[in-house]
Amino acid sequence: MKIALASDHGGFRLKNIIKNYLDELGIEYVDFGTYSEESVDYPDYALKAAESIMKGETDRGIFICGTGIGISIAANKVPGIRAALCYNIYAAEMSRRHNNANVLALGGRVIGDELAKSIVKTWLETPFDGGRHERRIRKIAEIEKTFISEQEK
Ligand code: RB5
Asked: Which residues of the sequence carry a binding annotation for D-ribulose 5-phosphate (predicted)?
């Protein structure tokens, strides 16, 4: 599994912690930036990393801003992305089991490093339950399709 990493300045510090943790777990990643604490705009990084997932260059993503809110909103504008902002382990587990989330969003200014690592581990290891949840994921994709075809008119 190859992970796309993205952050703004608010998530930069935690992104480095998560990179070290992924190294420990032996999980490959591509870091789409940002690469310093200089102020930047989170949609730019969400877009680059989300595109890599949609092109199949990476499998899933971990996106981090100050709260995780902005970067998850931006990521969810990319068709096919299901970004889940998780502040606890239960949400991380359910975002995989029920929502088949392909992006985990974290708030670098909200949660502690050890909790973030536990959330990441749970999220990486938990599979999608499938079954009735497949239908709901399909309905989300249908909503996207409706709006994409509206724009093409
Ligand atoms: C940047 O100051 C901050 O607004 C950003 O990291 C994020 O929290 C937005 O949702």
From this structure: 8-9, 66-70, 99, 109, 132, 136
Calpha distance 73→52 (Å, rounded): 17
- Euclidean distance between CA atoms 56 and 134, whole angstroms: 20
Q: Is 45 in the pocket of ligand 1 (CB under 6 A)?
A: no
Q: What's the total number of domains in the chain? A: 1
Structural Rg of the chain based on CA atoms: 15
Tokens of 104: 């985990």
Q: If you take atom 9 of ligand 1, which residue's CA is the nearest one? A: 70
- Residue 87 sits in a domain whose CATH number is 3.40.1400.10
Three-state DSSP at 35 gives coil
Range of the domain at 56: 2-152
Look at the pTM and tell me if it is higher than 0.70. Answer: yes
44-79 pLDDT, tens digit per residue, is: 999 999 999 999 999 999 999 999 999 999 999 999
Q: Give the active site residue among 65, 83, 116, 119.
A: 65
